[in-house]
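From the thread on structure requests for the teaching lab: each student submitted one protein with a one-line request. Submission from student K.M.:

"Model MFS transporter from Mesorhizobium australafricanum, tokens only."
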Amino acid sequence: MSLPPLSPEQLVKPSRFELRMSLIFATLFVSQGTHLPYFPLWLQAKGFHAEQIAVILAAPMFLRVVTTPMLTALADRAKDRANVYIALVAGSMIISAGYFLPATYAIVLAVSLLLTIVWTPHSPMADSLALSGVRRFGSNYTAMRKWGSISYLCANVAGGFILAATGPQAVPVIIFIALGAALVAALAAPRMGRPRKASPLSATEIQHKAPSLFNAYFLYFTLGVGIITASHAFLYGFVSIYWKSIGIGDSVVGLLWAWGVVSEVCMFLFFNRIFSSVSVVRVMVIAGIGSIVRWIAFPLVWPLGLGVAGFFLVQSLHSVSVAMVLIGLQKMIGETVSEERTGAAQGIAYFFNGFFMAAVTLASGPLYERLGVDGFWAMIPIAIIGMALIGLASRSAPKLSVRG
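Reply posted by the TA:
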């Protein structure tokens, strides 16, 4: 994607850039930290059965695999990405109000499909703005992005307490208000002009650069990552419903979700100290083993009398089954993909992750309907397939960085 050089105005750092981006990240993740754990509970409270819930959760995943790269590419071509971000956040808030309409299956599915189009690009676009500040002005990305993790944690915990007091009907209200707060923060987004290179999910980058990435090592590795990640679909779709079914309160459900995120953050903080000398293939194998142990353990916790403490222990494995996968993917791309092709590499990985997650989420509804919590065991062979693909990747691992 050919872009003009930076203008003199773009070389001037916007006032309070880090503070403004921190506010964007903080408000961005409140709605996401509410939707993932509690939206399935709202769907169940509205009378949808497990297979309908699976379709409502999975259909947007299939759609966003296509629409998100298109919209991020549009943002790259816009006069200023901030304007596109504002429009998408405003559109998200307006469309989310559709959940206040009568909750028929057709209406909820239609709202969810429309919402995912404008909602999913928020995070990559915020990342794009922040990374422009890192490149141009030496801003600290983690210092800005950490507020997203903090707000996500707070949304997990606060959402649980709110639902304990009000019931699941509060979920659409929380999402709507959170998106309103995100819109206020978006209006203060720093204007950065056009990026010099395409953003991480640019369809243009994928089109022009991806073919040279179609080597056995990269394909096996990213397919393995996508499938190991997809083995978490049953967890994301139905674990809150399961916890509620055995009498765990909303506030504790929120704390269980938050504990998983805390474990993930801890892995990010200590990964380099523990695994700096470990090959990326071994990192992914460890992550796959962590996933398998997690899916074996989940159905056993309550029957063995381990109680809520047992679920907190199993949730600690989020640091292995999720965080190490995320880190391992980025480590592989950093080691084997040249800088000008990282956008395409990220886009291909995003496609695999999104597609397989959507497919397994769709299958998770019938699994939960028929097997209940024992459906977690069906995630074990999925994780094993992912590990087998990582093993195939190791056999074709390049000795030198990919060039060309």
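TA comment: The CA atoms of residues 228 and 383 lie 5 Å apart. The radius of gyration is 21 Å.
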